[in-house]
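Lecture 7 notes: from sequence to structure.

We start with a single chain of 1025 residues. Read the sequence below before looking at the structure.
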Amino acid sequence: MYAAFRVRPIAFFLLLLAVSLLSGAARAQETGFYIEPITPPGSIFDAVDVEVAADGRIFVLMKGGWLRVVLPDGTLLDEPWLYFGGEVLNVAERGLLGFALHPGFPATPDIYFVYTVDDSPLPQTPSYSRAYGRVTRYSADPADPNRADLASRHVVLGENFHDGIPSCYNHHSIGTIAFGHDGSLFVGSGDGSGAPVQPDIGGQYDECFSENPDEGVHPDEDIGLFRSQSLESLGGKILRIDPETGDGYPDNPFYTGDPADTASKVWALGFRNPFRFTVVPAEPGEAGPGTLLIGDVGQANWEEINRSTGGENFGWPCYEGPEEYAVGQSVTGPLACSEPRAGVPTEPYAYFSHSYPERSSPAGVTAYSVTGGVVYTGTAYPEAYQGALFFADYANQWIRSARLGAEGMEGVAFIGEDVGHIVDLTPEPATGELIGADVIHNQIVRLRYAGSGGSPPVARLTASARTGAVGTRFDFDATASLDPDGGDLAYQWTFGDGATAEGPEVSHTYVAQGVFPATVVVTDSDGQESRASLSIRIGGALPVVTIESPTAYVIPANGRVRLQASATDPIDAAETFAFEWAVDLLHNDHIHRRFFYTEEAVGEFILDPHGGPGETTHYRATVTVTDGEGLVSSASRTLRTVVPAEIDVVPAALPMEIEDGVEVTFPRPFRVGRVGLPGLSEAPDGLAVEVRQDGAWAPVRFPSVLAEGDTLQVLFVEAEADGVRVVGADRLSVYGQVDPDAVLPGGGEGLDVGAPVATGRAGVGVQGALVVVGGGAVRDGAFHMVRQVVSGDGGVMARVSAVTGTTPTAGAGVAMRASTASDALGATLLAEPDGTLALWNHGADGRSVRTEVGTWDGPTWLRLRRDEARLAAEASSDGEAWTRLDTRLLSLPTDLLAGPAVAAGDRDSLGLVAVGWFDDVAVTGAGQYPEVTPTGPFAIRGVYPNPSREAAVLVLDAGRSGTYAVDLVDVLGRVVWTGAPVSMTELRYLPLPLGVSGLGAGTYVARVRHVESGETVTEVLTVAR
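Now the structure, written as C-alpha cells:
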C-alpha cells in the first residue's frame, strides 16, 4: 500500500521546452505515408475495432453489435459473422467496443468480445446510468467459417451486475480486449463514472446500484471516480483473466488466494478510460504475458500512454498526466488521495497536453483522444520504423510514431494528418502494413508507404448526394485522390447513363429513373490507374422531412428530449417510409457518434451535460427517411444544454463596427464561451471569432456554429478575455460565465423590480467583479437589483466600472426602495452610458421623476444613504472624497431594499437589456458613512408666470442645505421687495413666492442668496399692468 505519490521536478519541464524548439522542422518534412481505403466510406457504420486473421480475412467490429468480414480480395460480406441484437447497450461511448481473435485462430475458431449490457428487468433510468461490461466468447460455425455458431456462446466475465465491469454513466466503460503472450486475456475498463461537469465521487447515480446482482452494481462500488483506485472494483483497470473461466491468475500482482476475487483479476489500476492498448511483441526468450502500452484518454488537460508490466497504479483520479487532478485531490475522508493506495505509483510513459505542445512529453505534440496503437514489426515501412509504436489521435486526426525508450517514448515522428478518425490500428501480416478503423467515415483504411516511386494512385470520390429525383444535379469531387509519388493525376468520369466528363470536380444531371454507377478513374504519369465508384439512385420524388419535435434549441441538462418527425412524398405511401434518428454528441473537436439511435419516427433520449468546465458541447439530432423507391432525405436540429451560470454581457446592438465585422471590449476580464450573431441563419464565408487576452487577439478554440432560427450561435472553449470580435457579422451578443459558486455581495439576492420584459440576472466574474444584467425602464419602476435589507438608517455603495446599454437612459448604479413593487417609494442613482449621472425619485404618487445630478467619466463610486427622513445621493471618483449630488425627504419604512441596480432604459417593450459592472459593493447601517459637505446644484429654474401681474413664484434648484434669502431689485439697483429667509426643506425644487402685487409695470431682477456660502443667483422678471 502506498501513500500520496508522484513529484516531478521543474527542471524536467525546462528540458521539454528545449526539445519542443526542435520539433517543427521534422514535422514539416514529407513523410511518404498515405491512407488508402479498403472499404468505401459509409460501408461499415461505427467501425471501432479491426483485426486481421492469419488467413487474410479482415474482421471489423461495429459498435452497435455487429462483427463484419472483409475477404482478402476486399469483398465485404453482406451477412455479419455475428449480430448481438438487443444484448448490446449502444449509447454514447457504450456498445460493442472490442474483440480479440484467439491466438490460434482460425484453427481454434474462437473470438472474444467485450461490450456493455443492461439486462436488468427494471425500466431504463433517465440518465441511462445502470449498465455493466461483459466478456463473451463465440466460435465459428463448423459449416461456415464466416458465421458464428450461436450455440457456442460462453460468458467469460459479467454474468450479472456484480460479476461485471461497472458502467454507471454513458462514458468511460470498456474498450480493448487482447491476448497476452502466455494465452491470458487482458481486458481494459474505464472508471464508469459521471459527467465531468459534476464529477462523481459517489452518491450521484443511486439507480445504478443494488444488493440484487440482477438489478445493479454492488453498493460498495458507489465511489464514482475512485473505483479506479479500489481493488474491490473492476472499474478503471487493466484486468488479466483466464479466457475460459474469467478468474484471475496466481501470478497477478494483487492475487488474494481466491482466483474469483475482484483483486485477483487486476493487472494494473488508476485509469480513467484506457480505451485502446496493445501488447508489445515478445522479445526472444521472453516469458510471461508481456508488456502493455495503454492509451488512457484524459479529462480536461492531458492524454497518457502508460507502460505496464503489472502492479502499477497510474494515479487517476488523483492525477491526470503529470499533474494533480484538482477534483480528486479535493476529496476528503477514506477516499482522499493522501490515504494509502494499492499498487506501485507510476508516472505516465508519455503524456500529451490538450493545448500546449511544449508541456508534452515527448514535447511538440498535442493530443485530445489518444489510442494505445500498435508496435510495428512489418517490412513494408522503412527500417527506421521497426519496433516503433504507431499511435493515433481520434480527435485531431493524426498518426505518429515513436521509439520505445527505457524511461519513456523518444523521437516522436509525424506520420500523417487528416487521416480520419482512427480508433484502432492493427498489423496486416500479408502486406506488412497497418490497417485502421475510421469510426466517423465508417470505413477500414490501410496505411501505406510510397517508398522510392512506382506506387499506383489512390482514387477517392464523394458526391453531393446519393439519391435524388429525376432532374437532380449531382456534384462529384475526386480532389482527395492522390499520387503517392507526388505526380499529377488525370480524371476520367462515367455516370452509368452514357455520359462522361473529365476533371477532378464535375457535375451531372440524371434525366431518367434507375440506379447508376458514378465512377472516376484516376491515372498517374506512369499510366497506372485507380478507380472509385458510388451508386446513385434516381426516383420520382424525394420525401419531404419535417422535424416536429424538438422545437427548442436549448434544453436543460439531463432533460428528456422527444424526437418526432414526419414525411410526405407525392408518389410513395407513408407506410413505405423507413425512419432513422441518430443523435451525435459533438465535444470540442471530436464527435461521439450515435449517442442515441432508433429506427422509429419517434424516440426519446436524455441530454447529457457532457464535457469539462468551459468546454464546448452540443448535439446534432438527424432524422433520415427512406421512401419506397429507396430515395433518402434528412433533416437535422442542433441542441445545446442550458448553462445555469451564463449571462449575456454584451447586448446585441452595442459592439462597434470594424472592418468586415464588429468588436467589443470589457472593462474587466471575463470568461466568455458563446457569441450570438442575430440576423444570420447560416455561417457566411470567412466567419471568424477572436478573443482579446493581455492585449493580443487570438482565434477561439474549437468553435462550433449552430443555427437557431434567425440567429447563429458560435460556441467555443471558454476564454478569460477582455474583448471579443467577429469577422463576417454586423451584430453581436456575447455570453459569459460567472462563478456558479460565488456568493453575491453581502449574500444579496438578484431579483427584478417591477415587471421588466427582459428578465435580469447577476453573477460574480472570475476576477470578482459583480456583473448585473437588467431590463426594464426605471420610469416604470422596472429594473434589476442585487438587494440586501437595510433596517433603519444606512445605505448602499458601489463602484460602477462600466455600463453598456442600447438606449441613452440605460444605467447602472444603486437603489434604495420600500419593496420590489413598481410603485414603491425610493430612489435610484444611475450612471448612464453617455456620462450622465441621473437620480430617479420614486414618489408616493407612483410616479418616477428623473433629474440629472452630475457627470461621470471612468469608474465612479455611487452612494445612497438614509438618515431619518433624509435620503442623500452622493458620488466619488476615488471612494474617499464624496460629493453630495442631491438630498430628498421621503417617508420611508424602517426596512428598505438596497443594492446595485441596472436598467435597460426606454423601449422596454423590445426586451432590451443593459449590463453593469461593479466592485466595492457595500450595504451598511447608520453611522458607517462620513458626512459630506453639500456642494450640489444651486440655480433658478425659472419664474412663473413671466411676465407676471398679481403673483409670481421663483423655482429654485436647491441642491444645498442651508438658508436662502430672496429679494427683488429694480433697474436702478434698488431693493423694492424682500422676502423672509427660507431654510431648505429637503425638496429637490424650492418654490419661493415673490411680492410683485405692489410693484409698478417694468423690469426687475429676482435675487436668491445662499447665506452660508454667500453665492447669489439671479433671474429677470417682467411685471405687466
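The chain has six domains: 10-449, 462-539, 544-641, 646-737, 745-925, 938-1023. Keep this in mind for problem set 3.
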